[in-house]
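INPUT
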Amino acid sequence: MAQDKDAGIGKRHEDGVDHEYAFGTRAIHAGAIPDPVTGARATPIHQTTSFVFDSAEHAASLFNLQTFGNVYSRISNPTVAVLEERVASLEGGRAALACATGMAAQMTALLAILKAGDHIVAASTLYGGTVGQLGIGFSRLGITTTFVDPEDPENFRRAIRPNTRAVYGETLGNPLVNVFDIEAVAQIAHAHGLPLVIDNTVASPYLCNPFTFGADIVVHSATKYLGGHGTTMAGVVVESGKFDWGSGLAAKNFPEMLEPSKAYHGVKFYETFGDFGYTMKARMEVNRTFGGALSPLNAWLILQGIETLHLRMQAHCRNALRVAEFLSEHPLVGWVNYPGLASSPHHALAKKQFRAIDGLPGASGILTFGIRADDAVKAGERFIDACEFLSHLANIGDAKTLVIHPASTTHRQLDEDELARAGVRPDMIRLSVGIEDVEDILWDLDQALRKAVA
Amino acid sequence: MSTIQDLRRILGTCRTLAVVGLSPQWHRPSFFAAKYMKEHGYRIVPINPSASEILGERSFPSVTAAAQALAKDGLKIDMVDCFRKSADIPPIANEAIAIGAKCLWLQIGVIDEASAAKARGAGLDVVMDRCVKIEHARLFGGLNWAGVNTKVISARRPQQLFY
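OUTPUT
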């Protein structure tokens, strides 16, 4: 499979080279060394709004960003910082910024580089909430978005205008679970001096690292697989550190990365902080002023989840593939869409971009299907009501199996055209396959299908 | 020369830093870096022919002039930290070797393989294309609080406080 990042594990010590830790070790350790004061091994929850200054001079240095430290938890917090560093490490990025929710993270990621008059080119198959944020929320701020069918990467090139400042997509669309060709679209974005922003929520960093394929900024709803237990809202913005804001077309497109910041007393973010200048700009100019900070307790809960991310994602993938195969053969099911199935049109791209689980591309835990019935929409609603322990709710990436009918819930605000563009069929049922015993999941699906068409 | 172990040793043993190309303007990266290092206990020796004093320290026109002046007080320059373009490095590297510095440090974007090889040959540690402030902050000084991937993985309690 394309990226087996752990191929190097087990390597013996080599002089002159830092040991490279594999994914599972970083999921548990990255960002979290023992507390220097108490020796506490688990990450302490720093539940405090503010941090004392040692002196007026120290305060001035902190405010000038001349020394690293904490001032106020709306800007940074030591517990939240552990989460930031951990996700940065798992994505193979340079730096990260945690936010209150996934929606806050994507807003922060984009507002760090966009202003009124700018334009985004985005995949039309994005999560409905993101379509709303970009298409409606941002348009009220004077930032417009063109949504294009991501199946042909050239659609992104055709939609780029002189005022385009970002290209946006999802590794795995939600709920269509279409696989985004990161490498092809990154090349198009870079040819125009633009960063490619990728929402990697559904794949999680365990299955895919978009930076490997040329993405420049990754956003996460950590609420989903990173947290993994449906308890806690959080979002993360990660920067690759490889986008050159300082030369070529990019320097013309993003002068505010180079010029003295009006929003932060004259700091030149790219010159001063180099390959984490974008993250510092997002932190100081956007999260600090728009108020999307993550609480330390929520950061800690997400960290607990991440410690088992690698184990859970393997289980999600195995269960989802088994469910997809089961539904494909079920006489009451009309169609199944899961990129882990060899019959999926996205299977080749999944193989290229996703980590292998048991020798097959790990395609995460989301799949969709439709019931074979005269009135498939009605049957779908009856199916959801008939589930015994599969939970009917509007989330994904939980340890529990979740089920929903997008057209009447998550994508309810979209009109028929938008639904069609998002690929949401009226009869579509979305499953977020959990990590329960798979035989029980199959049993509940089967009995609910029978009731749905009875 | 840039493993975590090497950088800990270099930043732990070099205490007096000649900062070549140090700007007196507060918002310049060289000023950020030198102010940070000074606040973290390092002696800063500004090398800038057009300034007389930066960060409260006397500025010298060259590394050699600074080394001679410091020698009168029995002090030595441990590290020559360069905020200059790559093409300007060869003579500075020669000066660093001549004064017996322990380390030649070239900041981000400053790359001169020939000078690096020469300095290594003369027994100096050479760090290239890295920022002395960022590396110090990464290993000792709280860069983790800015969400940066420090790549430090350890179960040992740090023996100094971040601040």
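end of record. Residues 20-305 of chain A form a domain with the Aspartate Aminotransferase; domain 2 fold (CATH 3.40.640.10).
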